[in-house]
Design goal:
It contains 6 helices and 18 strands. By secondary structure, it is an alpha+beta fold. The longest helix is centred in the last third of the chain and has 19 residues. The strands form 6 sheets. It has a 5-stranded antiparallel beta sheet. The chain has a 4-stranded mixed beta sheet with strand order 1-2-5-3, with no helix packed on it. About 25% of the residues lie in helices and about 20% in strands.
Length: about 325
């Protein structure tokens, strides 16, 4: 199998975990099920081998049933969200990949409180808030993916984090039980939320502030222009590859180490922002990991800093 250039966590890598045979989920869920589905179709990098099964639950009760089954049978699960910030390895995922669809895409406001389903795109949340003149989440401008993924990784920028305006999160626990957790119970930190093992976020409730719709739109537009100017938003990537070390920028460190334009196969370090690795057409996960390892080694040699992956690596090599 070979040694991977980065350590993969036990939850992500399903060694020894039961596989899901075709037809195994018949009668378990009502939603759409695809066996052997290539996960390259569902990630922003367009990379990744097949999952044993991909399930789009029909509703929350369907998600509960799926997680109860997986918990009982010892089957690994992977929530894809919008497919950003995720690198699925070339051997695919042994278990059930979960894609939350329209049943988890509700978006509604009551006063200055906004409830957003986990499948709501971050861009759609921003557009909704700007129309209503509700401010507080402009810091998410340009961040790809869904509300659920943003909450799981506490997405944000130097201007703020998604957790800043969060009141509570709805979720389904790993044993299939529906639950709610207040913001204070989730241990939010830089690019991190402390969720119960196996939990799947289903919605977030945010407390925003009343403002002028035109002013909110202007703030979002200004941030979007700046982000588009500095990041390769038009290319296939998983977002930022590395976390920023304290007091510095992973992109600046990689740039200073001369890594812009470095390549392994069809994986290339962006010449616009050195913390992005792009798939230029036929890159494999192994290429991306090898290139990320090269960036990390060069930065360590050049600056004495060991970068930590921000992208979640899952599956089998």
């Amino acid at each position: 199998m070979g040694r991977l250039p980065f350590r993969i966590g036990a939850v992500s890598r399903a060694v020894g975990i039961p596989t899901v045979a075709p037809g195994a989920l018949a009668g378990v869920v009502r939603g759409r099920v695809a066996y052997g589905e290539p996960l390259s179709r569902h990630t922003s990098l367009r990379i990744g081998g097949p999952a044993d099964a991909l399930v789009v639950p029909a509703d929350r009760e369907d998600l509960c049933a799926l997680l109860r089954f997986a918990h009982r049978e010892g089957i690994a699960t992977l929530v894809l969200g919008g497919g950003s910030n995720t690198l699925v390895l070339d051997g695919g995922f042994r278990g059930v990949a979960i894609l939350l669809g329209e049943a988890f895409a509700a978006l509604e406001a009551e006063g200055t409180a906004v409830r957003a389903g986990a499948a709501v795109r971050v861009s759609r949340l921003l557009a909704f808030c700007s129309r209503l003149g509700l401010g507080g989440v402009e810091c998410l401008t340009g961040i790809p993916g869904t509300v659920g993924g943003a909450l799981r990784g506490n997405a944000g920028t130097r201007d703020g984090w998604i957790s800043d305006r969060l009141r509570e999160v709805g979720m389904v626990l790993g044993d299939g039980t529906a639950a709610r957790r207040a913001r204070a119970d989730l241990g939010f930190a830089y690019r991190h939320a402390t969720l119960p093992a196996g939990a799947v976020i289903t919605e977030g409730l945010f407390d925003l502030e009343r403002g002028d719709p035109a002013a909110v739109r202007r703030a979002i537009s200004k941030l979007l222009v700046a982000r588009n100017r500095s990041q390769p938003v038009e290319s296939r990537s998983a977002g930022c590859m590395f976390k920023n070390p304290p007091g510095d920028s992973a992109g600046r460190l990689a740039d200073a180490a001369g890594m812009k334009g470095a390549r392994v196969g069809e994986a290339v370090v962006s010449t616009k922002h050195a913390n992005f690795i792009l798939n230029q057409g036929g890159a494999r996960a192994a290429d991306v990991l090898a290139l990320a390892a090269a960036v990390r080694a060069r930065v360590r040699d050049h600056a004495g800093v060991t970068l930590e992956l921000e992208v979640q690596v899952v599956g089998e090599p």
